[in-house]
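Lay summary. Proteins are chains of building blocks that fold into shapes, and those shapes determine what they do. In this project we predict the shape from the chain. Here is one chain we studied, written as its sequence of building blocks.
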Amino acid sequence: MPGEILLSTAYFPTAEYFSLIKNAETVFIEREENYIKQTYRNRCKILTSNGTLNLSVPVMKGSAIKAPVKDIEIDYSKRWQQVHLGAITSAYNRSPYFQFYSEYLGKILLKSHRFLIDLNDDLLCMCLEFLNIDKCILYTSTFQPDMGLPSDFRYRLSPKKKGPGFTSRPYIQVFGDSGFVPGLSILDLIFNMGPESEGYI
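And here is the predicted shape, written in a compact code that computers can read:
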């Protein structure tokens, strides 16, 4: 694992994302790239009684046209906060650690963050604390094109691609009766495994 890694901003990213952070010496998150739709930058996947469900933070249409990700504004004309909290509650209220963590989650989700990257940053810090991972997260100040470097994960972690080598150890999931479902938001691991989550990444 390289000492320094570069990641995209992400909304409740996967365990793989946190594994990269845990094992790196220095973590940079990209602020200057042009925003890319249909990626982990504004969406995550949870496990419900009806299977997996994608949750997506709506962004202002005008702000998403060739704009740096740091300038992407959240669209509050849609009731996405209530929808996301309701879906997360429905999916995980029977999990062992939901009651322990849900209050912290709700406080951040219901804030009126103007920019997507600020919401993601608050949620990232919260999840790192839950996972007992103490890392200083830095942000890029200039954009560097993807040169295929092994430390650059900005475009390799994607809902449409298999990850670059991370294998999640199975754990008990509330709706995992048909077998373990990998590639979910870190929330799935945290709500199901609580303080043991760090050992799974």
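What the prediction tells us: Strands lie at 4-7, 26-29, 43-48, 51-56, 137-139.
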